[in-house]
């Protein structure tokens, strides 16, 4: 029988997860590229899209942690041959995500002006941010239900279904971006930034419809809600709560970076928007192997197969770092051309090019951090992930950013702070894993 940590089995999960993962940031990258090339007020529109995109990512990452919790619990029960024990848990978790998304919408959509003022946005950038967010926020229920279902798929060791949903959503977004942002003379009026928001909303709806189809047709689960609370729901919500706190700290770092960049001026936040979206794109790309670690690691823990768990960590580390070096090499070859895809303003491009090398240099460190993140989530180690992220953010990233700002390093300082942040995260995860699981593999 083929080993669960064979090259073929790891990549059976990782490659579709990579494609599904990059489809998500591809939606934001497409918005940034299309909006950044609109002739009128392109810098302001690009800045607004970047600010709103960061805030949306922050909220979705925080509240979508039930996806990871669902994946961990399903994979552990799959490994222990007890999948029947979570059949009532799945609909309860999905409905929880839906209800929570409505709360998030209600508490943010009506305070958009205040929220983006806190990012130091003002004038036209603030107006654009508010308009763009009011539309994008309608997608919270669509996205959070979809992510919960994707967690079920990953727990069942299948990332192919999520990949198909994400690719369809990305295709819809790209097509509608050009159609709605630029318009067609005599047929469709140019909607500019609002057009990009509606394109994203249509993409999210497409992914949800497809995810529901796979859920009903391909999985052993259903959406019939049982009034008897599954005893594992408390553990799932506790795991999700720890991941909420962790992700809140993660997004505090992103918020702080964007707030400082906005304060430096519109050209700086425009360049930061491009850099951050590329960094997120790389992160989701590398995260495909983290998803494999999440799914397979949880299954191996359920089966108490510690030897293969150790082998899994070594193999996935190697594959993830290789992907990171490939991304660095490709971007190095096209270093001066990449910025032109997103904006033609020479001042913005000069700032972007002067800092982009730091984003590239940190990719191997990111690869290790993201890979062990995935494995630790599959093992249910949410509390340790929470504590490590809090340390990295408040004792690493924040002091580094404040010191860099004091010395006037601007975007250089922001990305040096991110580098420090990722070094702490990767080192903490590697040390913990070796101490806890290396001794168990023999």
From TrEMBL:
The keyword Glycoprotein does not apply. This is Multidrug-efflux transporter. One of its GO terms (cellular component) is plasma membrane. It comes from Salegentibacter agarivorans. InterPro entries: MATE_fam (IPR002528), MATE_MdtK (IPR050222), MdtK-like (IPR048279). Keywords: Antiport, Cell membrane, Ion transport, Membrane, Transmembrane, Transmembrane helix, Transport. The keyword Acyltransferase does not apply. The chain crosses the membrane at residues 12-33, 45-64, 94-112, 132-153, 165-184, 196-216, 236-257, 269-290, 316-335, 347-372, 384-403, 409-431. It is found in: Cell membrane. GO terms for biological process: monoatomic ion transport. It is a multi-pass membrane protein. GO terms for molecular function: antiporter activity; xenobiotic transmembrane transporter activity. It comes from the Bacteria.
């Amino acid at each position: 029988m083929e080993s669960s940590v064979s090259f073929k089995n790891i990549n059976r999960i990782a490659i579709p997860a990579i494609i599904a993962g990059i489809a998500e940031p591809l939606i934001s990258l497409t918005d940034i590229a299309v909006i950044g090339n609109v002739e009128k007020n392109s810098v302001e529109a690009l800045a607004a899209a970047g600010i709103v995109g960061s805030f949306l990512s922050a909220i979705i990452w925080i509240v979508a942690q039930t996806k990871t919790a669902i994946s961990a619990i399903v994979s552990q029960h799959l490994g222990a041959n007890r999948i029947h024990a979570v059949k009532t848990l799945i609909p309860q978790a999905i409905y929880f995500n839906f209800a929570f998304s409505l709360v998030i919408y209600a508490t943010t959509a009506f305070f958009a002006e205040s929220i983006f003022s806190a990012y130091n946005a003002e004038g036209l950038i603030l107006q654009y941010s508010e308009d763009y967010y009011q539309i994008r926020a309608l997608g919270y229920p669509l996205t959070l239900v979809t992510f919960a279902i994707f967690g079920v798929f990953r727990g069942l060791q299948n990332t192919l279904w999520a990949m198909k949903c994400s690719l369809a959503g990305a295709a819809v977004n790209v097509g509608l971006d050009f159609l709605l942002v630029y318009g067609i003379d005599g047929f469709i009026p140019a909607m500019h930034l609002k057009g990009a928001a509606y394109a994203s909303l249509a993409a999210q709806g497409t992914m949800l419809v497809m995810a529901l189809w796979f859920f009903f047709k391909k999985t052993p689960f259903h959406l019939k809600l049982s009034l008897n609370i599954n005893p594992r729901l408390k553990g799932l919500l506790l795991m999700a709560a720890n991941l909420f706190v962790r992700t809140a700290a993660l997004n505090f770092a992103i918020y702080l970076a964007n707030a400082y960049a906005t304060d430096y001026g519109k050209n700086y936040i425009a360049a930061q928007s491009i850099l951050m979206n590329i960094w997120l794109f790389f992160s989701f790309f590398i995260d495909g192997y983290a998803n494999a670690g999440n799914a397979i690691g949880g299954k191996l823990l359920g089966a108490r197969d510690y030897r293969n768990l150790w082998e899994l960590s070594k193999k996935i580390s190697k594959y993830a770092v290789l992907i990171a070096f490939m991304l660095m090499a490709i971007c190095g070859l096209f270093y001066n051309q990449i910025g032109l895809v997103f904006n033609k303003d020479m001042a913005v491009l000069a700032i972007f090019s002067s800092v982009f090398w730091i984003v590239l240099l940190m990719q191997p460190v990111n690869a290790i951090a993201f890979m062990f993140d995935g494995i630790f989530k599959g093992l249910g180690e949410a509390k340790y992930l929470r504590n490590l992220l809090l340390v990295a953010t408040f004792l690493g990233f924040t002091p580094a950013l404040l010191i860099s700002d004091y010395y006037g390093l601007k975007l250089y300082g922001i990305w040096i702070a991110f580098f420090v942040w990722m070094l702490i995260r990767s080192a903490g995860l590697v040390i913990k894993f070796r101490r806890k699981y290396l001794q168990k593999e023999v």
